[in-house]
Design goal:
68 residues, mainly alpha, 76% helix
């Protein structure tokens, strides 16, 4: 996306009535969460979180945890 397109989108957002802005905001947050979920799933599949999981399991097995 080039800057002029982004600037046009920003300008259009500024002109939205409140109810339309709220709908856009909800849509945008949902989209952001979906992208975050996909990235997290990919990171898990790629093994990027294995070290953290191993560390957490080791701490649990050593009794270095507490109930929350």
């Amino acid at each position: 996306m080039n800057i002029s397109t982004l600037e046009q989108i920003e300008a259009a957002i500024l002109t939205l009535p409140s109810d339309e802005f709220e709908k856009l905001k909800g849509w945008f947050f949902d989209l952001d969460y979906q992208r975050w979920d996909r990235q997290l799933e990919q990171d898990i599949a790629d093994g990027k979180l294995d070290a953290l999981a191993d560390e957490a399991i080791a701490e649990f097995e050593a009794g270095d945890c507490r109930e929350i």
